[in-house]
Specification:
This is N-acetyltransferase domain-containing protein. GO terms for molecular function: N-acetyltransferase activity. It comes from Anopheles epiroticus. This protein has a single domain (49-263), classed as Aminopeptidase (3-Layer(aba) Sandwich), CATH 3.40.630. The chain is an alpha+beta fold and 275 residues long. It has helices at residues 2-21, 34-38, 62-72, 78-83, 90-103, 132-141, 146-160, 164-167, 190-204, 217-225, 270-273; strands spanning 52-56, 106-112, 119-128, 173-181, 209-214, 229-235, 256-263. The protein has a seven-stranded mixed sheet with strand order 1-2-3-4-5-7-6, sandwiched between helices. The termini are close together.
Length: 275
């Protein structure tokens, strides 16, 4: 009960934080808020520079984020490309799902320095709960599009099989659900920068553990560099249908799905989190 109350308090804090961000009034510089920490291009923890500015997304950014995901993810992310979800009508349904995800997410934007200001990276994070896998299965069962149904089933397996909630003895983890970099801005450290900032935001919001589901090799490498350890993996050729045929086979090196996780505070152990 105490842990549930703590999770509720932090979710309430997030709502207050989002409502403050929609206000046009500037935040006082002397106030050390999570928003200000996310708006820096370097910190004492990560001295390397990045060619972007990171800030929390606002409600008004939703349409730009969806447009960014449509142009930079649907056609290039290995799993989505292999399932051909960029085709109509699966594209429209998936974009609607992203819009729904944005409503209850903690989203960070990477913006290019200098005019014009444009999005070069997005990290959509959310609360990961034990029932998320079941909800994805229910959504898949309601989906008529075959490609999208396969995607949702795969996501449900990735959410459920690692059993991280039982492993860490918690009902709620911080999950970096979607991480994307603009096609013309890759290999500049933007993905790592957004991952590090997302983990800092998780600490500010009081989360004890974080996870990142990596459906491609590149995001797995970013997760490792950010300090998340691989806790579960499965080869794509092991995900088979009723005819024992692989459901999807992305091109190499994207041969495995990997789920990374970490404790967000030094000294935090599984034993102590169960008390």
């Amino acid at each position: 009960m105490l842990r549930w109350v703590q999770n509720f308090r932090w979710s309430s804090l997030l709502s207050d934080l989002k409502s403050k961000l929609t206000n046009d009034l500037p935040v006082p510089i002397c106030t050390p808020t999570a928003t200000e920490r996310c708006d820096l291009s370097r910190t004492r923890h990560h001295p390397t520079t990045c060619p972007c500015r990171v800030r929390l997304a606002k409600e008004a950014d939703s349409s730009d984020i969806v447009q960014f995901m449509q142009g930079n993810v649907l056609h290039s992310e290995p799993l989505l490309r292999s399932l051909q979800v960029s085709t109509i009508p699966s594209q429209a349904v998936l974009l609607d799902y992203i819009r729904l995800l944005l409503r209850d997410s903690f989203t960070l934007l990477a913006l290019a320095n200098g005019p014009p200001e444009r999005i070069v990276g997005v990290a959509i994070s959310r609360r990961s709960c034990p029932w998320d896998g079941k909800q994805l299965i229910e959504r898949a069962d309601r989906t008529r599009c075959d490609q999208l149904r396969k995607l949702l089933y795969i996501w449900s397996i990735v959410e459920t099989e690692p059993n991280l909630h039982r492993h860490f003895c918690t009902r709620c983890l911080f999950e970096i659900a979607l991480l994307a970099t603009a096609i013309d801005s890759q290999r500049q450290g933007i993905g790592l920068h957004l991952t590090q900032r997302s983990l800092e935001l998780a600490r500010d919001l009081g989360f004890q553990f974080a996870r990142m589901n990596c459906t491609c090799e590149y995001s797995s490498r970013v997760a490792t560099k950010a300090g998340l350890e691989c806790h579960w993996t499965v080869a794509y050729h092991h995900l088979v249908d009723s005819a024992k045929q692989p459901v999807v086979l992305p091109d190499p090196p994207h041969t495995h799905i990997k789920v990374h996780a970490m404790a967000l505070f030094p000294g935090l152990s599984i034993k102590s989190s169960c008390r």
